[in-house]
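Before the break, one more example. Copy the sequence into your notebook; we will annotate it together after we see the structure.
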Amino acid sequence: MIPAIDPNVDYKALVRQAYDACAAAYDASRRAEPGIEMRALLDLLTDGDAVLDVGCGAGVPIAKSLAARYRVTGVDISPEMIRRAQHNVPTGEFMCGDIMSVTFPPSSFDAGIAFYSIFHLPREEHPDLFRRVQRWLKPGGYLLCTLSHFSEQGYTEEDFFGETMYWSNYSLREYAEILKAAGFTLLETNSTGSGYEETNEDDSENHPLVLAQKH
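Here is what the structure looks like once it is written out:
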């Protein structure tokens, strides 16, 4: 882990470039089908609902599985990932951009999901991210997202599918307060693994999985 403190480095650009470069390997490593982690949210939605996928990647498995029943909009900072998502999920709508810069009208979505994506944003932006998503959700809308157990200031590692990648996150306890301040009620907190195929699964990788509702 290398502290991400170089003022001359654009760490969002680093994330974009890394995912562009490793897109094929990353896409191939993901599970073809989502696990049970989606079940809590799916039980609350109705066919045809609008769902926002924050950091959608190549669209597999999350956006692809959702698109069978719902109207899916995916946002990702990587142009190559968006190209793949458009191919993998032809019925979805996909936008390439920084989630902190894109805009949607208030009450556009019934639910938002963010799997393995929030920690690629500088954590100083996380409170505003949740406030943005809260505005985009309809009254009573849901958010399902993977977070982090521990508080870590921005850092990079050089072994992410051969590329240098950036992470930054708060602890689960801090996220609970941030979500409440952003206008969410916490409904459930579970955990999930890495989302990779079993042959690539790191048994030590564990992410808090939080289901929240706009109030």
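The longest strand covers residues 137-146. Residues 64 and 89 are 5 Å apart (CA to CA). Try to locate both features in your own notes.
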